[in-house]
Design a protein that fits this description.
- With 146 residues, this protein is α+β, with helices and mostly antiparallel strands.
- The chain has two helices and ten strands.
- The protein has one domain.
- Strands 1, 2, 3, 4, 5, 6, 7, 8, 9 and 10 form a ten-stranded antiparallel β-sheet that branches.
- It starts with a helix and ends in a 10-residue tail after the last strand.
- About 10% of the residues have low confidence.
Length: 146
């Protein structure tokens, strides 16, 4: 009886330590602060294959609603037109964080309780910009309008 109990305990321990599989689906979001605009799309396919696009523009001279709306539309158009050329690439997933294979820096964080993603965007030597992404059934034409 003891070997059976020990085997069951070992199996339970191994199962509780195993990584959860990466989610599959689509997410999108935007970022705009101090003249930096980023529109992002993320599609996760089975086996942690990731399609991601996050074009960015930094233009501190944009300081009124009309210019801001024009830039948001420009970013949305760039995102939509380039999406067909984005190839899936593998990422390592530890249950919450996606990293480039063998990489250290987080690229995406996943909150399984809310199904939300946080995309890390690295622009030059600045600290990472964290962009919350919401789940979507299909990508919108303009992610700023949601």
């Amino acid at each position: 009886m003891r070997p059976v109990v020990a085997a069951l305990c070992a199996a339970f321990l191994l199962a509780s330590c195993s990584k959860s599989p990466p989610p599959v689906g689509r997410w999108e979001g935007t970022y705009e602060q101090n003249g930096t605009f980023i529109a992002a799309r993320l599609e996760l396919q089975p086996n942690a294959q990731v399609r991601i696009s996050a074009p960015d523009v930094t233009d501190p001279s944009i300081d009124n609603d009309q210019d801001r709306e024009a830039m948001e539309q420009n970013m949305a158009d760039r995102l939509a037109s380039a999406w067909g050329d984005v190839a899936p690439r593998p990422m390592d997933f530890d249950g919450t964080t996606f990293r480039k294979p063998g990489g250290i820096a987080p690229q995406i964080e996943y909150d399984s309780s809310s199904n939300l993603m946080t995309l890390y965007v690295y622009l030059g030597t600045h600290p990472a910009i964290r962009i919350p992404l919401r789940p979507v059934d299909d990508f919108s034409r303009n992610p700023w309008t949601h």
